[in-house]
Design brief:
The protein is built from twelve helices and no strands. By secondary structure, the chain is mainly α. The chain has a domain at 101-310: MetI-like (MetI-like fold, Orthogonal Bundle), CATH 1.10.3720.10. The chain is globular, with a radius of gyration of 30 Å. Mean pLDDT is 83; it is low at 1-19. Pfam families: BPD_transp_1. Residues 1-29 are annotated as: Disordered.
Length: 359
C-alpha cells in the first residue's frame, strides 16, 4: 500500500509528460500549417499579380494605340512625319520586318558559336580554365547595350569593312549570273523584280560605311552570345556521367560521345536558350540605334545603309519629339505589335521546349 501512492505520481507524471509532448507536436503542426497557408497565399498572389500586370500593359497599349489603327493614310502622313509618307500598317510592317530580320541574323550567328563555346567549357577545357572562362562569359552578359553600340560603331565597323568588300566581290558575280541566266529569276519577268526576293545582287551590294542591318545583326549576336552560352553550358553539364562514360567505353571519340549523348539530352535547353536570346534581340534598342542608318524599306539589301530599322529603335528615335495625339499613338501602336510578337515568340518557345523534352 505504501508503494501505491508513490506509483500514482509517476503515472501522472508520465501521462502528463505525454500530454505535454502531444501538445507541442500539435502546436508545431498548426504552426507549419499556417506557414504553408501563408506561403501558398503569397505564391498565388505573386502569380495573380504577374497576370494582372501583363493584362494592364496589354490594355494600356491597346487603348493608347487604338486611334492610330483607325486613322486614315492621309491623317498618318500629315500627323506623323516620321513615317516618311507611309500609312500606319506600311510603317509598322517595315519596322517589324527590320526587327525580325536583325534578330534572325543574330540567331544564325550566335547559336552555333554559343553551342561551340559551351561545349568547349563543359567538355574540352581544363577545370581551372573553364571556370575562368565561364566567369568572363557571365560578365559579358552584364555589359550595357550602349557600350556594345559604341564598340560596334567605333571598333567593329572599321574592322568589318574589308570582310564586307570581300563578300560582295565573291558573291556578287554569282548572284548576277543567277539573275541573268536562270529561268524565272530575271529582273524583268522573274522573281528578281520583287524587292522581297533575297537571291539577287542587292543582297551583297555593300555601300560603306557598314551601318546596315547585317552590321546590326552582328552586334546583336555578340550581345546574346553570353546569354545563350551560359544556359547551354549549364544544360550540357547536366548530362549523366554514366551515359558519357558508356559511350566512351564503347569506343566512341569525344565528339561522337557529344553527338550521341550531350546534344540529344540538351535539345530542350538549347531551344530555351535560343528563344531567350531571341527575346533579348527583339527588344534591343540602343545598340541598333547607334549602329544602324535607319530606313523603312522592305527588302534584303542587308549590306546597304538606310534600308531597315527596328520597332524599338523607331520608338527611341521618334518618341522624345513626338507630339501628344496621333504621333505618339502611332509609336505606341508599333510598340503594341512588338509586345504581341514577343508573346508569340515566348509561346512558340514553350511549345518547342515541351516537344523536345518529351522526345
Amino acid at each position: 500500500m505504501a508503494n501505491t501512492p508513490g506509483a500514482s505520481p509517476k503515472a501522472e507524471k508520465g501521462s502528463g509528460g505525454k500530454e505535454q509532448k502531444s501538445t507541442v507536436t500539435f502546436g508545431s503542426r498548426r504552426a507549419r500549417g499556417r506557414a504553408d497557408a501563408t506561403f501558398k497565399g503569397f505564391a498565388y498572389g505573386a502569380g495573380i499579380l504577374i497576370i494582372l500586370t501583363l493584362g494592364a500593359v496589354f490594355i494600356f497599349l491597346l487603348v493608347e494605340s487604338y486611334p492610330a489603327y483607325l486613322a486614315t493614310s492621309e491623317e498618318i502622313r500629315k500627323g506623323a512625319s516620321f513615317t516618311q509618307g507611309l500609312n500606319f500598317w506600311q510603317y509598322a510592317g517595315a519596322a517589324l520586318f527590320g526587327t525580325i530580320l536583325a534578330s534572325l541574323i543574330a540567331l544564325l550567328v550566335a547559336v552555333p558559336l554559343s553551342i561551340g563555346i559551351a561545349l568547349f567549357i563543359s567538355h574540352y577545357a581544363s577545370r581551372r580554365f573553364a571556370t575562368g572562362l565561364g566567369y568572363i562569359i557571365d560578365l559579358l552578359a552584364a555589359i550595357p547595350s550602349v557600350v556594345f553600340g559604341l564598340w560596334g560603331i567605333r571598333t567593329l565597323e572599321p574592322m568589318i569593312r574589308p570582310i564586307f568588300d570581300w563578300i560582295e566581290s565573291a558573291l556578287g558575280p554569282i548572284l548576277q549570273w543567277w539573275v541573268d541566266y536562270v529561268p524565272f529569276m530575271g529582273e524583268e519577268n522573274g522573281l528578281a523584280r520583287f524587292d522581297w526576293w533575297p537571291l539577287q545582287p542587292d543582297l551583297v551590294n555593300f555601300v560603306p560605311p557598314a551601318r546596315n542591318i547585317l552590321m546590326g545583326g552582328l552586334v546583336l549576336a555578340i550581345m546574346i552570345i553570353p546569354i545563350i552560352t551560359s544556359l547551354c553550358r549549364e544544360v550540357f553539364l547536366q548530362t549523366p556521367r554514366l551515359l558519357e562514360e558508356a559511350a566512351l567505353g564503347l569506343g566512341a571519340t569525344r565528339w561522337e560521345m557529344i553527338k550521341m549523348t550531350v546534344l540529344p539530352m540538351g535539345r530542350s535547353g538549347i531551344s530555351s536558350a535560343s528563344m531567350l536570346g531571341l527575346g533579348r534581340a527583339l527588344g534591343e534598342t540602343m545598340a541598333l540605334l547607334m549602329v544602324l542608318s535607319p530606313g523603312l524599306a522592305v527588302n534584303f539589301a542587308i549590306m546597304s545603309p538606310g534600308q531597315h530599322s527596328t520597332i524599338a529603335s523607331q520608338i527611341a528615335l521618334n518618341f522624345p519629339e513626338a507630339a501628344p495625339g496621333l504621333p505618339s499613338q502611332v509609336l505606341v501602336g508599333i510598340g503594341f505589335l512588338l509586345f504581341v510578337l514577343t508573346f508569340i515568340v515566348n509561346w512558340g518557345a514553350r511549345r518547342i521546349v515541351a516537344r523536345t523534352s518529351v522526345k
